[in-house]
Amino acid sequence: MYRQGTRRPQRPLPRRNGSLAGHVVAEVFWVAVLIALNVVPGWHAIPFLAPSFGSVLWLINLCLVARIVAHLFYLADGAGRFRPVGDYLIALLDLIVAAEILLAFPFDFGPDGATWETTARLVLLAAVVISALRAAGAATRVAHVVQIHWQRTHSV
């Protein structure tokens, strides 16, 4: 088909049917979470959150806004060129948020909440480990994309 040494013309990858709807649903969900935490009803309405939750709220808000911006980029980029980098940055933010919440532990389960406290700490620890694994996996995808781009631009 193509002679050796010539490159196949690059075409953008087709957008999968479910990706548009999935990104729109994700946008609506993350905006709703952002509003629920900050406006109505607000994080003060959640009975087991301690006043120290305010110290990590800015980081949670940053992560939510980053997710919203990432999904807007995903919507605009039908070929998915930005997806690996966006997934990596979101995974890193998830890791930072989970670790910071684990360190601050802004929860108050009351005098009889020892079981809930242990459960919450284990869930947060699992979130840290899973986020670290996601970040590592996303980093390998970014490295793979960079390698492919390098090979395409520097081939003879």
Secondary-structure map:
Elements: H1 17-38, H2 54-76, H3 83-104, H4 114-153
Helix pairs in contact: 1-2, 2-3, 3-4
Brief digest:
Helices cover 69% and strands 0% of the residues.
- Major beta sheet summary: none
Low-confidence stretches: none
Intertermini distance = 18 Å
C-alpha Rg (nearest Å): 21 Å
The overall strand count is: 0
Overall morphology? elongated
Q: Roughly what percent helix?
A: 55-70%
Order of helices and strands: HHHH
Question: By helix and strand content, what is the structural category?
Answer: mainly alpha
Content of β-strand: under 5%
Mean pLDDT: 86
Number of domains: 1
Total of helices: 4
Describe the model.
The protein has helices spanning 17-38, 54-76, 83-104, 114-153. By secondary structure, it is mainly alpha-helical. The protein has one domain (18-153). Helix 1 runs antiparallel to helix 2, helix 2 (54-76) packs antiparallel against helix 3 (83-104) and helix 3 runs antiparallel to helix 4. It is elongated, with a radius of gyration of 21 Å. The chain starts with 16 loop residues before the first helix and ends with a helix.
